[in-house]
## 1
Amino acid sequence: MANLNPVEFESSTREIMPNLQIVRVDQLLPHETHDNQRSTPLIKRIQESGIWLNPPVVAPMDNERYVILDGANRHFCLLSLGYPYILVQVVDYESESVKLETWHHVVSGLSWFEFLRNLREIPALKMEGMDLLSARAKLAQREALAYTVLSDNRAYALSADANTLAERNHVLNRIVDTYKMSGTLNRINTDSLSVARRLYPNAVAIIVFPRYEPPEIMVAARDRAYLPPGISRHIILGRAMRLNYPLAALSENGETLTQKNEALQKWIQQRMADKRVRFYAEPTYLFDE
């Protein structure tokens, strides 16, 4: 598939267009489990809209497969709806345009008593109360799997006898399952409960997870040692969003994969000609996700 040439944007900076491709759904490998709280309503929105809005971001694993960096829920939705193809944005995981950070979980929808009781029922999970600074240090040194904050100055370090990535992720999934099923999970980038409650007044706890490195994400996908949903946070410079691409183009309509990608490139070129594409260099909030 031919690459697009650099395009002159209104900002007078030269940017390379995002690498958008259509691939088979079964070529994508998630590195995390999907979140039913997000995927269930998303399936309905995709069906009703008939468009593919925000493509998952993927990185090549080998000649045939890609790791999903962001978009596990959208991938799950297309699988559930039976579409054989998916439109993705392909990025170079080793480039400076991709940055890996970590989301924390703010938990609501259950009492702090239920939250702690559910954690204590996880076999082999150890909970050690301590001040917040000490919990941060334990997590930074990977002496804890995670820590939970129930007040601004106190925390519980969560640990277990887990040495491999697969063992650690298994326990983390057990932790997240305790509130993913019975409570409400939202993502946040602070471990201050008072700050979290400005957005989520009924929040009872925050779970703080370790920082991952890109090789761990790749191995988690390759070995199916999935992270819990909503932990890895990939920040992409030049993220393609709001494509509004026809969903029907991802169905089995008699076109070959090559033909589908040729049609996609023509569609992109027409969007450029119609001045429908704009590059935002600054961080942006979207209120229609």
## 2
Amino acid sequence: MFKILKYSFMDLMRSRWSYVYFLFYLVLGFVLFFLNSNTTKAVITLMNVIILLTPLIGTIFGVMYFYSSREFTELLLAQPLKRSTIFAGQYLGVSFSLSMSLVFGIGIPFVLYGIFTSSAIWDFTTLLFIGAFLTFIFVALSFNIALLFNDKIKGFGFSILLWLFLAVVYDGLFLLSLLIFDDYPLDKLALGATLFNPIDLSRILILLKLDISALLGYTGAVFQKFFGTPLGMMVSFALLSVWVILPVVIMLFQTRKKDF
């Protein structure tokens, strides 16, 4: 598995798109500090970018890599190797390469501008962790989609729809339900609905870490009461871990029955 992981990782690190992804965050970080040297404001701006862009890139890269390496995967399947070993190695290779591009792309500008001596270091660390979590989550989801559809067009289309639903449509439906049923106590419903969307859960964790929970609006007090406590933070990161583990388990289960 580690050999396959190494090959997948090195293959993606030689890809021009990995460098484009790295350079995008690198340039964005320097531009933010050029316009405003306040590290907290830079973290907030990056939060809005990472929450939307990282899941999209993870989904597209995952599907693209799976389909482009299909012939190599079939060659590996002809060898005396476990299917779980092959696909777990490929998944980890893609996820680690994207996470490294994200961490180094964002980290270099912040390090040069003295993040280690700033009070916002823990906010910045939380941002990197959440970015890595979202990468691992959506790469796993993209592998599941690619395993489900043999047709590339269907796979790409469904992956974009999944990202669009979780990033935009889910919030719209959630807010619409709050408006329609505003006469009823919806605190628990709002809390539960947030836990089923990794993008919303990540956004709330960052907002609470930055102590700007007033931006959460109607359910801000409920989120502050639960997520703002150390136990709430631990539960939230545990749920993000579940969002990583569950798609990976489903992916490995699919590979056992998939006819290549």
## 3
Amino acid sequence: MSSIAAIVVTYNRKDLLMTCIESILSQSAGKPDVLVIDNASTDGTEDSVKMQFGKEDRVKYINTGENLGGAGGFSYGINVAVNLGYEYLWIMDDDTFPENKALESLLKASDLLGGKFGFLSSFVKWTDGSPCEMNVPKVSANWRSCIDMQFDNHMLAIESASFVSFFVKSSTVNEVGLPIKEFFIWGDDVEYSQRISSRYMSFFVYDSQVVHAMKSNRSTSIVEEMDEQRIQRYALLYRNKYYIIRNAPLRVRIAYWMDIRNIIKDICKNSNGNKWKKCKIVIKSSVAGLFFKPAIEYVH
């Protein structure tokens, strides 16, 4: 068994998943095992994984039995990986394609830091090579504390990052707990990375690069959303956002509500349809965030 588990959460995207797994198996260093965490896909994902990788001992398929969302899938997969005894966890979505030296660069950064880090995050590119807008990390306010070491090694201290190529030690997971599964989608990676970086310096590693094969390189926006079936999902976004800033300074919380006001104005002025429904979702879900208090679970 490898010391590294690449945890890939998937749901009904078997073609992307196959490319993701191939990219992980072809890494230049680390030889990670691949834990496929399937949120009960209905597109033949299990058959495809077993047909293509059934003879590969490094690929392990696990079905959650129901759709737990991205947050639930990552919480489930991380818990499984820690219990299986892996020392390091490399977390990503099924549409993440790590370049050949992505893991090697993360391991070099880990060695350089003497293992003293909270998490490491890769440079996430879109399919055209430009930075992926949905995966830009937030720079830490303490980034100046070790500026020469960071810049000389193409690294930068960060506060939060996405789960698109997120590298963390099992020992850290045991200490800080699991991602909050109740988030379902949106914001679980921000909350989790901030929970870690509040205790340990964490870093963006430029030389570790991955491609995030999203359909579009644009940030999510309820104002521009045209798909009626997707509009309701934004209730999770605004509820989860308020949970993340609940304990922030008063000025941050005030800024949040000012932003909500501006979003309502933008919907009324620029949205092409479902204006009342969108406004209702933003307001109700933001208020729901005041009362959303899921417990942090630990490895069990």
## 4
Amino acid sequence: MELFIKIDEIKKTFDNPVVTIGNFDGVHLGHQLLFSEVVGKAYRNGGTSVVVTFDPHPLKVLRPDGIKLISTTSQKIELMRFAGIDALVILPFDHDFARTPAQDFVDRILIKSIGVKELVVGYDYAFGKGRTGNIDFLRQQGKEKGFPVTVVEAHYKNDTLVSSTRIRELVTQGRMRDVRSLLGRYYQIHGKVQRGKQRGGKEVGFATANLKVSEEDLCPQKGVYVTQVLYDGKVYGSISNIGYNPTFGDNRLVAETHIFDFNRDIYGHSIKLNLLQHLRGEEKFASVAELSAQIGKDITIARGVLAEGAKEHLLSCEERLNS
């Protein structure tokens, strides 16, 4: 996938490009359907599938209280590459760019720089100053300037509208199974393993890999989760506590993860943490011994959840092979 982080990096228009525009926070199932439409049309027409998005997210700039995002820019890039997109154009977004008239965006960016031959957008998309670049505007532009416009309708999963807003709500409630249903994958935390106070192994009896969690980012409900750690091309079962570790009176928000059957030194290494299921809220225990005993119980439950998940995955694969 070719990556362009500003419009001036595009030196010539793309070959027969099929284009979509959006913020695509989370790259959820609805976004994936839209990308599938773009990739399919580009393939059938011998063209290029192109995604245009923005960084930072426009609401981070336009809303005083900002917005807490499901995915980082690097995660979006990775997910769009996985979706088979040929070219990704990331436009820097600021207050000046927000004042760009919709007409200017179409003429200068979509037509002159990208060379759009076909446009695919979500059912509720609008852009440009005053959000005047709505579906009706784009359809009219397409008629006048020779590019058909396809609108991908809203997508529902189990009678729930798949939307970034709904997914954010579910994440903050710790409803990770519902989050997975709408994302089409596990919700993930990325980061480098930090050196903590190293109490996990010495005092509590369960060594942990710690990831810093920012209050500025979308934070799951505090508490204990069944998790998976992705490291060095492998997946390890694990259990994580996201919170402030009240038993020790800490005040730093962190994700502390005990990785099962793992004894490597990974301080400073990047890992990905899949959140599978919220087990319980964060608690303050009367003693370290009481905390250690509860972690032992949590680990037993977590191993059962992971084993059941592996069994369900195996059965699902067998069903696909036999169908």
